[in-house]
Amino acid sequence: MTPQIALVLSMLLIAVVFLVTEWIPMEVAALLVMGALALTGLTTPAEALSGFSNPAVITIWSVFILSGGLSRTGVGNIIGKRILKVAGKSEMLLVLIIMVAAGVMSAFMNNVAVAALLLPVVMDIARNTGLPPSRLLIPLAYGSLLGGLTTQIGTPPNILVSETLKENGLPSFQLFDFTPVGMMVFAAGVAFMSLIGRHLLPAHSVVERSAVGATVDLNHQYQLQERIFQMRVPPGSILAGKTLSESRIGKFLGLTVIGIIRGSKPLLSPGPAEVLRSGDRLIVKGNPERLNEAKNWHLLVAEDEPIALEDVFSGDVALAEVSVAKESQLTGKTLSELDFRNRFGAMVLAIRSEDTVKRANLQDKALKAGEYLLVQGSAEMPEKISETAGFEGYQQVSRSVAADRYHLHERLLVMRIPAGSDLAGITLKSSRLGQTLGMRVISIIRDNDTRILPDPQEQLKAGDRLVVEGRGEDFGILRALNELEIDRRGDMDMQSLLTEDVGLVESVLSPHAVIAGKTLQQLQFREKYGLNVLAIWRRGEVYYTDLRNMSLDFGDALLLYGPKERLRVLGREPDFIVLTESAQEVQYLDKAKLAALIMAATFAPVILGWVPIYIATVVGAAFMVMTRCLSMEDAYRYIEWKAVFLIAGMFPLGIALDQSGAARLLAEAVVGMVGPYGPHAVMLALVLLTFLATCFIPTAALVVLLAPIVLSTSTQVGISPQSLMMAMAIAASASFITPISHPANILVMGPGGYRFSDYLKIGGLLTLVVLLVIMLGLPVIWPLTP
Fold first, then answer.
1. What is the DSSP letter of 459?
2. DSSP state, residue 462
3. Is residue 446 classed as helix, strand or coil in its secondary structure?
4. 551-560 pLDDT, tens per residue?
5. Concatenated DSSP letters for 491-559?
6. What is the DSSP string of 63-86?
7. Which of these ranges, 197-201, 353-357, 385-389, 745-749, has the smallest mean pLDDT?
8. CA 322 to CA 371: how far, in whole Å?
9. What are phi and psi for residue 233, nearest 5 degrees?
10. Is residue 36 a contact partner of residue 549, using CB atoms and an 8 Å limit?
């Protein structure tokens, strides 16, 4: 093994580790690999960047736009609904029709977009037929994946192997060359799911009909009934006369008020501006044990004597002011996103603009150009902040300036932890003082020793005096919250909280969402949409508490409760898919025929051999935007940029594997193990390797890495490269075994209430079916020997 081969194989191993573990974003790992290959001389700089100009990559992103045009104009929805109309109420027929509808559309559309498009339609079918959604959603995801196997543009692996063959001077695949084998796999997969696989599907989230119409009883999936109780506002409470927002019930206690009983009729889904009254009974979702935490905070003793700034900001602590530059890349980001505390070893005490000073809830405030930040930190803080692009005008300020400009002294409180408090013995982070009360612990005074900027893991002790920056009236509200009385006699059934105007529904993040990674608090979800998030289902687990601080992720299912008109407003947001068809984003239906015509006109010259597919799809994508079938903003949103950067970044690694001889070395290892058993054994080994790798590595990246190895193997054994490449592409796209194998699987996981084992069981058997078809059917259409 030459040093060059050893280096390439080392990079391959490192790339696979990063792709499997996701320690850093996959597309970032791909770009780092691309840069490393150029820097080490394994590829030329032009070869390292060649992925971005590769015809396969261009075809992939332009097909995403074409697919988006069909989605935005409702073409896909029209086709899907018309096919599903003939399904009736038979579960077997429904599974069959859903998979056929998804498969037909996925032959020419992005399969994730197809799954997202049909998801609300299938959920409505579940409501109307009384079938659990979990009996229909995995068939939807698998149908979209199987349909993508039937054409060259149906899935990125098909496009990639076609272009790889062409680049190596070999006869390439045309648009419908995948159709014979793909249709065999598709038919076998649909038959398996309709006759056998459906019996293995779980029966989560049972659908019932209520007096107010078709609704989904989500109690079984989310176990809501165990978390709904009532609290009474006692006479004389200071909460009377305050709005729900001012009461801080949600922020302090993590409880969600979903109704107020006042008189004979309950007020359902009250808004943040609803004013509380003495005697109100609050219908609440959450954990009653959070009231005990309020008692711990309530027992903190507030000292009457104010503390001077000199006693807080002294010694090695720097107090400084820094501004956000006008064209700063920090604009729009929050302190939480910047991880400001850990990154700079500093705490932001206030943010000042021209006319206001903000001193509370700073972590989730988006920074604006020209704002000034008052920061407190260690002696190393000035250098770290000054060297950071985006900040300017760093200067230390005196305590008197801080008091005059920011009135900081008005919000300094000293709270003492009394003996016997449950706060003694736990860490500052575990106490949740900052997270729940919105107060920042600036220092801890213990036995005449002042600990400035205490570490979050600092253990609290009885007698500690906490110097906090916050509002004294918050403790008054805490006392009032502590006086709320739990009323178990009036527990209500969730079904009684649903009316013609107020509903309970699920929503998932769209595959094109740009809000992934943000929290509900950062999005101001409650204030913006007027809806309560009761729970979040994420990859088989349900979360009920601290939802406002959870970063949203693709595939999350949000259980929403609120006015149905607000649910329809949310449905028009491109970042969310509300799982009922009536709440979907408005489509450009008047452009449907035009979009279909553009799609046909794009591929007609490709079929006739007049124009290369990458040129035709680019022109077609341009016409989709030019004719306003979708806007340019929509076009950008429909492109899966993560896939584009991942493929383009991994392309040079495939080049290095080929040019260095590493691909030939790996191919010789494969041939040495299974070559003596014949061509079928070689194909079986490569297909099994691909199936296994799809469980951990994104399919597009996997194809780029395996392609040079497959081609070298075909040369050494004398097998048709088209046969092996098609087998590998089909195996890569048949990503059924785990939910993380493909975004379509993740998309239906939350709404279906699926667990990892459901995919392993059903997807594993379906993979065996696909394996049999590949081994028996593919050699008939594409003989293994040239």
1. B
2. T
3. strand
4. 888 878 888 8
5. ---GGGG--SSEEEEEEEE-TT-S-TT-BHHHHTHHHHH--EEEEEEETTEEE-SSGGGSBP-TT-EEE
6. HHHHHHHHHHTTHHHHHHHHHHTT
7. 385-389
8. 8
9. -80, 115
10. no
Burial class (CB in 10 A: 0-12, 13-18, 19+), 684: middle
pLDDT at site 215: 43
What the block records as the tokens of 633 is: 């903003």
Cα dihedral 522/525/526/529 (nearest 10): 150
* Type of residue at 175: L
In the chain, the domains with their CATH numbers are 3-201+595-781 (no CATH), 309-410 (3.30.70.1450), 415-467 (3.30.70.1450), 495-583 (3.30.70.1450)
Q: Can you tell me which residue has the tokens 């009983």?
A: 261
> What is the pLDDT, as a whole number, of residue 212?
35
Structure tokens at 266: 């309950």
- pLDDT at res. 210: 33
In angstroms, the Cα distances linking 659 to 53, 216, 339 are: 19, 58, 43
State the pLDDT at residue 213. Answer: 37
DSSP at 275: B
CB 720 within 8 A of CB 784: yes
DSSP conformation letters of 167-208: HTTSPPP-TTTTHHHHHHHHHHHHHHHHHTGGGGS---S-EE
User: What burial letters (b/e) apply to 566-601, b meaning 16+ CB within 10 Å?
Assistant: bbebbbebbbbbbbbbebbeebbeebbebbbebbee
Q: DSSP of 339-407, one letter per residue?
A: THHHHHTEEEEEEE-SS-EE-SS-TTPBP-TT-EEEEEE-TTHHHHHHTSTTEEEEEE--HHHHHHHH-
Q: Rounded mean pLDDT of 360-386?
A: 77
Total residues found in the chain within this entry: 786
- Give the three-state DSSP class for 424: coil
* Cα–Cα separations (whole angstroms), residue 669 to 673, 686, 709: 6, 12, 10
* One-letter identity of residue 47: E
Give the span between the Cα atoms of 720 and 165, in whole angstroms: 11
**Does an H or E element contain 322, and which?**
strand 318-324
pLDDT the model gives residue 315: 55
Cα separation, 138 vs 559, in Å, equals 20
How far is the C-alpha of 689 from the C-alpha of 706, rounded, in Å?
A: 10
Whole-number Å distance between alpha carbons of 598 and 619 = 10
What's the Cα-to-Cα distance from 134 to each of 35, 36, 621, 784, rounded to whole Å?
44, 45, 35, 40
Q: What pLDDT score was predicted for residue 597?
A: 92
- Indicate the pairing of strand 391-396 with strand 346-352: unpaired
Cα 257 from Cα 507, distance rounded (Å): 20
Query: The tokens of 676 are what?
Result: 């003596």
Give 240's contacts (C-beta < 8 A, 6+ positions apart): 233, 276, 277, 278
Q: Which pLDDT score is estimated for 624?
A: 92
pLDDT band for 150, please (50, 70, 90 cuts).
Answer: very high
- Range of lowest pLDDT (215-224, 455-464, 471-480): 215-224
Q: List the structure tokens of 53.
A: 């100009």
417: left (phi over 0), alpha (psi -120 to 50) or beta: beta
The structure tokens 């553009």 sit at: 598
pTM, rounded to two decimals: 0.72
Contact (Cβ atoms closer than 8 angstroms) between residue 81 and residue 587: no
Q: 5-64: per-residue pLDDT in tens?
A: 888 888 888 888 887 777 788 788 888 888 888 888 888 888 888 888 888 888 888 988
Write the CA distances from 714 to 62, 405, 711, 774, 777, integer angstroms.
31, 74, 5, 17, 19
Give every strand in the sheet of 449-452, ordered side by side: 301-302, 412-416, 465-469, 440-446, 449-452
